[in-house]
Structure formats: structure tokens, C-alpha cells
Amino acid sequence: MSPDSLVSFYASSKVIVTGGLGFIGSNLVRRLVESGADVLVIDANIPNTGANAANLRGIEDRLRVKILDLRDAEEIAPLLPEHQVVFNLAGTVSHLDSMTNPLCDMDANVHGQIVLLEACRRHIPKARIIFASTRQIYGRPVSCPVDESHPIRPIDVNGIHKVAAESYHTLYHQVYGMPTVSLRLTNTYGPRMRVKDARQTFLGIWVSSILQNKIFEVWGGHQKRDLTYVDDAVEALLIAGACPAVQGCVFNIGGSLPITLTSLAECLVSVAGTGAFAIKEFPPERLRIDIGDYFADDRKFRQLTGWAPRFTLEDGLTRTIEYFRDCLRDYV
Amino acid sequence: MSPDSLVSFYASSKVIVTGGLGFIGSNLVRRLVESGADVLVIDANIPNTGANAANLRGIEDRLRVKILDLRDAEEIAPLLPEHQVVFNLAGTVSHLDSMTNPLCDMDANVHGQIVLLEACRRHIPKARIIFASTRQIYGRPVSCPVDESHPIRPIDVNGIHKVAAESYHTLYHQVYGMPTVSLRLTNTYGPRMRVKDARQTFLGIWVSSILQNKIFEVWGGHQKRDLTYVDDAVEALLIAGACPAVQGCVFNIGGSLPITLTSLAECLVSVAGTGAFAIKEFPPERLRIDIGDYFADDRKFRQLTGWAPRFTLEDGLTRTIEYFRDCLRDYV
Q1: Taking CA atoms, what residue in A is nearest to B151?
Q2: Which of A245, B89, B132, B285 is most buried, by the most CB atoms less than 10 A from its CB?
């Protein structure tokens, strides 16, 4: 679908974005608001996640924001009627936090998802629901690139819970005919990502370190990854919400060509024009949940929808650095 | 392992059985008590599950029973020390209940499992933990027999939660080195199963109908299934707890040769010497979560441990009918 047809699709839509204060969520909300959509953000504003009020700065009066935990069924239900699309991006993604507090991770990623889907089933069963799933559910790839038929073998509690959350979405399509779709996102980066620490993406702490003249650490360095610039991920989400052919399916979303972490660090320093890094051995508590190489085979989504990433890695990193150079204080 | 060597292994063991008031749990407890094991049963005694005080009748003074929800971390923790083996059979298995109340299913099968495993990690990290997983996690088989590499595609909420529960066990082995093992049980039947309704197994309601001179319904009838007599499942669990080679793995447990439901009904009527059934179309709410044919390829467990089922279907059904003929009043 062309950007123009997406704009016209969403111009007259009432849309919910869960996790809309977060990194990908807020970038999506901005595109939706620009398209003229009527947007309701539902976000629990949980500490140590991507939620950040600065992410919606300047557009606060063009949308509705409800600070609310998805587990709160009584509050959620009356908000739903009349909405045609639900972008379901709420959740936590920290692998280490999920290992130190698995129940918290369950509350955010399992319990809340059940409540939301049950409420949608009762109140807006025809709404399109687009779930932000993750490559994390594959665990250590058997081989790359990884397509959607790769075994599901999460290697941390967060991954186990993301499997459950994605499975609910697929199940509610199969059993109740609800038009759900899940996108398994790879490493996504760009403006408004969490840069205070590595809870959301390792790239976050790299960017803030460069901008604060600190040496950042690259663990391992030889692992290959693909990366999606956030605008490309947002485009994929918008297409998934607009395109009937994808309903009931799960898709990988990839991005740039695979690159080693060391080359990625070099590229980041190059576009920033400054910065330095040190290659370090993996800390033991990270090594046990590291996945080695990962890059996605996302041809299924590309072929069905015509989506393709539009930003090169250099473009994306340049835009990211420029964004945080201007407003790092809001993020650290 | 021979029955004798199992007896001597467990004779001096302190063992926990979660779900020990239930069908498989209570049969396991009886074998353990006979072997001389020091047994603690932890069971939430949840209505509409397999829990039934009659299941432990006659041996109450030879074991300890704690009525307790696994979610109660403060109560669970002090019970664990000094136990060497945990047979983790607690949970609900009703597919329909999980669809009508997914949060209840999460509480029983996800939340409780996290609390138990975290408590074991802290207090008895070297204890062997044997988890009763289920064929339900495979969903509709691509082809039969189904081995352990078959895709995991549960088709109800209960299946999604059993995937999560099994995954925790595998993860806690990988990350913390805890000696866990999961057995994916197929349709298990025998004395002490729930016969009041089809919540645990369709065979239950068949047996109680025959013994109450009611016609029972066979839905579909052409679907093939394998069945495990409970003593064979108990033997597999005991071996899994005693055999170091199985740690960290998941195994299918099958049983008798595949049989269609119609032939199974005929066989049951034959061994009972009475009874009648009617073939019915699948009710719509069952059809959407039916899995078609299933039978397990369990060669991995057989080859590694020497286990094989010892009861023919006729033997197992005969023993089952005899048991419930004597004490049906305790189960309906």
C-alpha cells in the first residue's frame, strides 16, 4: 500500500494504541495523528519501560491519553467501543528484568493481554488488532535467515510470555474470527527509543554514551543482527492494520542487511562523527540468554503487502543521533 | 529401570507431588508411598479439577497433605527444603473452561508454576522436577505419529498456558542448571480419573455413563487417539525422576496402539459387559478446539530409559471399570 492510501485509510479511523507512550508506539501515534486519525493512547506508564511523556510532546492536544494498566478490565471495557483498529504495543521487553522478576513480566505481558483481548472480543469483535511480537520468541536461531516456520524456543521468561501473548492473538482469530495479526519485530531503533540503559535495545545505551562522551561497550561483537528503523516498523504496522490479506497471520519484519555488532558500532561512531567503544567479553548473566546471530527472512510480509524498508542503516542512525542530540536530557 | 530399582530409589527419598489429590497425582502418590518414600502432597483442591479426597483414601496417615495454592509463595517456600524430587502435576486441563475463563486458567497454570519454580530455585535448586506436560501443546497434528520436534501450536488457552509452563521448566534447566524434565502425556485414563464430566478426559464421562446405565455420546468417532493407562504414566514419571539422562529434556509419552473413538467406545462397552453409545456430530463449541487425530511417537523416551507401557487397552479399561464399579459414588 502506498503512503497516500494509508493516510486516507487512517484519516477517518478511530484507533487505539496500547503502549503509545513508548518508543515504537509514540512514533506510530505521530504518524496516525498526522494522517488525521482519532487516536486513543492507553499506557500504564510503567517505570523502566519505553514509556516517556516526552515522546508525545507537541501533539498532546491532538489525541487522548489514558494512563491505565491493561489488567484493569473495568476501566478498559468502556474505552473500546467505536474503535476500528487496535495497535497492541503494550508490554515490557527487558530480558534481564524478566529473569529477576518473572511475575512482574507475567503481569505486563500475559495477564494484561488476556484482559485486553477478552474486552475486544466482547465490545469490538470486528476491530483489527495488530500485535507487536518479537524475534525473541525464536531463541537461538538454528540457522539464518529465520522465517516464520522456525521453531519457537524462547530463552528467557520475557520470550516465553511473548509467545503466550502472540498465541492468544492467533487463537482469537482462529476461534472467534477476530481480525488479529502479529508482527515479529527485530531490533528496532530510532528517535524516542529508550537510551537510558539497555532494557529496550543495546543501541540505546550506545547512542546515549556517544552523546555523553562516554566509551560504550560492545559485548562479543561478532554476532550478526538486522535492524529496522522505526519509521519502517511503523509503516509495517500501519499496513498490517489496513490490509485484509494479513489477518490471522504472523509475519517477521526485518530491515537492513545483517551486520556484526562491531561493524554496527563503527557505523554509529562514523555517522555521529564522534564516540568510542570497547569490545568486551559477554557478562555471564547476559551470555546465558544471548541468542548469537539473528536476521529475519521477512519475504512473506514483503510479498503479500509490498512493504519494504525505506531507510538505510546510515540514514536511520543519522536521524537517530540527530534526534537525541537535540533532546537527550528528556531521555537520560 | 526395573520396578525394583525404582522402589529402592524412592524408598529413601523425600518427594513432593503437586496436584497429588488429582487423578495421575494420587496414583503416583500411592506408588511412592508403597515404595517407602516420604511424600508431601501440595494441592489447591480446586473445584472442577481432578482433585478428590477419595483418591488418597486409606493412605492418609502415611503421607502429608497440604491444601495450598501454588501462587502462595510465602506458604510454599518453607515446605520445600530437604525434598529431593518434585513431581509437578498441579494444574487445570479443561479446554472449554480455559476459553470461558482464561484468567482463571492463567492463575492455575502459569502464575502458580512461576511461583513454584522460583521457590525451588531459591530453596532446593538441586531437586529433580518432573513436569506433567501434555500433547495438547501440539494442537492439530500436521501428521501422526507426533514426535517432540512437531510444531507447538496450541488451539486453546489451556494449551497456550501449558506451553508456557513447560517452557519455564526447560528454561530453568538451561539458565540455572536445575534438573527439570517434562513429559508430554497423551490421553491418560484409569482408576481415580474424573468421571463426573469431560473436563479431564472424554473417557471419564463414558465410564460413569456406562455404570449409571446411561447412553454416552461419541463426538465424531473417526478420530484416532492413543491412550496411556495411568500405571504406565506413573511408571514413566517415576523413571523420569530417577534417571539422570533425561534431565533438561522433554519427551512424549504414548501408550496403546492408535484407535478410533468409535472402536474405543466399542471396546469399553465390551469389557464392561454393558453400555450403549450414540455417535453425534461435534457440538460447535467443541469442534473449534478439536485436534483431529493424535498419537505419539515416544521412541525417544523408550530408547533412553527402557520404559514401555505394560498394560494393553483391554487390561486398562477392565481395571478402570472394576475400580469405578466399586466406588462410583465418590466420583459423581
Answers
A1: A151
A2: B132
pLDDT values of chain B reduced to their tens digit, one per residue, 332 residues: 777 889 999 998 999 999 999 999 999 999 999 999 999 999 999 988 899 999 999 999 999 999 999 999 999 999 999 999 999 999 999 888 999 999 999 999 999 999 999 999 999 999 999 999 999 999 999 999 999 999 999 999 999 999 999 999 999 999 999 999 999 999 999 999 999 988 888 999 999 999 999 999 999 899 999 999 999 999 999 999 999 999 999 999 999 899 999 999 999 999 999 999 999 988 776 776 678 899 999 999 999 999 999 999 999 999 999 999 999 999 99
The per-residue DSSP string of B3-57 comes to HHHHHHHHHT-EEEEETTTSHHHHHHHHHHHHHT-EEEEEE---TTSS--GGGGT
- Min Cα–Cα distance to chain A from B148, Å: 11
Q: Does B142 touch chain A (CB under 8 A)?
A: no
User: What does the alpha-carbon distance between residue A310 and residue A225 come to, in Å, rounded to a whole number?
Assistant: 18
Domain locations along chain B: 3-191+228-255+295-310
For residue B95, list chain A residues with Cβ-Cβ distance below 8 A: none
- Domain at A3-193+228-255+295-310, CATH homologous superfamily: NAD(P)-binding Rossmann-like Domain (3.40.50.720)
Asked if the C-beta of B299 comes within 8 angstroms of chain A's C-beta atoms, the answer is no
pTM of the model: 0.95
- CATH code assigned to B3-191+228-255+295-310: 3.40.50.720
Identify the three-state secondary structure at position A67.
strand
